[in-house]
Specification:
Elements: H1 4-7, H2 13-23, E1 67-68, H3 69-77, H4 84-96, E2 100-101, E3 104-105, H5 109-117, E4 133-134, E5 139-140, H6 148-152, H7 160-188, H8 193-199, H9 216-219, H10 225-232, H11 239-251, H12 255-281, E6 288-291, E7 295-299, E8 303-307, E9 315-318, H13 319-323, E10 329-332, H14 333-344, H15 350-358, E11 362-364
Antiparallel strand pairs: 1-3, 2-3, 4-5, 6-10, 6-11, 7-8, 8-9
Helix pairs in contact: 2-12, 3-11, 7-11, 7-12
The structure holds iron/sulfur cluster (2 copies).
Amino acid sequence: MSDPLEINSNLPPLYAGWMSQALQGSIPVETKATCENCAMCNRAAPTVPQTLFFNPKVKCCTYIPELPNFLVGRILLEPDAATVPGRDKLQERIIKGIAVTPFGVVKPPVYDLLYSQATNFFGKSEAMRCPYYIEEGGLCGVWKHRNSVCATWFCKHNRGATGFLFWKNIQKLLTQVERSLAVWCIYQLDVGKAAFKRLFPLDFPNQGNSRTALDGNQLDGLKDEADYRLAWGNWYSRENEFYELCAQLVSQLTWAEVLAIGGAELLVTTRLAQEAYQALLSEELPARLQTGTFRVIQAGGDKNLVETYSAYDPLSMPRQLQEVLNYFDGRPTGEAIQAIYDEQDINLTPSLVRKLSDFQVLLPVAEEPES
Ligand code: SF4
Ligand code: SF4
């Protein structure tokens, strides 16, 4: 049997192990998102519109991840030397204490505000770069323990929108896992009565969802010492120890135990992720197809570059192919392929039709409900 950590190599080790158990199988690697030689930074690539290239000094890391307590602990405990720069940055953040709570280390409020207001910065602005990004070499300093968002975001997907939807489902699942386990860790490790009340107010878990005006301390990057002390309770000034214990508690959990902690909501999200996984593995063609919506973004000689489900993952499409798409008008897929062959002398292979369907150039026709 293959090693699940290897076959799920797109995911951090802890999440790879859990997803192997949740999905009962391995996840195909997204080979088009070539992070070490960033696909979005390659100006020679014919399939990236000139206006969309990413800045190699940031790649897609114009984002600060929300690290739940147990991932913070795993980063602090990580012996791999490659993690040292990321770990040092995280340690600096813990010492500063801004957006550092028993739940984890999250976006500082000033960054959060900028992120919500800025436009056209993604993949471009150095001011918005993640603190854990290692400029030298352009690598992630916390790669083995990156969070649900970082672990599931790809600029390109081998199976287009089918892959995108699969990873969206996994992101949702892992984000729920992160929230549940962060709360569970706090519950396990006695923070003290006052801290418990401070961390779980009556409107929990909705607290913090509405953005409030920033005060002078927040703008100056200073923490509210009294509130910080209150929130950390018994663990005040022992933050590292707390995070490391969270890591130890969580790292031992099987997927069945994670599900038991997460409850019914997690069961539902898991089932949806399993369905998206089956779609990702399926090679079947939809029974009937019709033309979807796409946009020519770069006209070429005999090929056009078209944008379909994502601006970052356009398709290079032969004009000849574009001209026969109207055969897919809701009739059975086999009949459409046959008609194109008979009338246009063009042989569309099932794998090409599947690709057009994956990239939503062609869309499945919804089945009529049985009366
Ligand atoms: S996922 Fe990010 S780092 Fe990886 S290739 Fe795409 S833009 Fe580059
Ligand atoms: S944690 Fe890593 S992958 Fe995520 S934004 Fe930062 S550098 Fe990029």
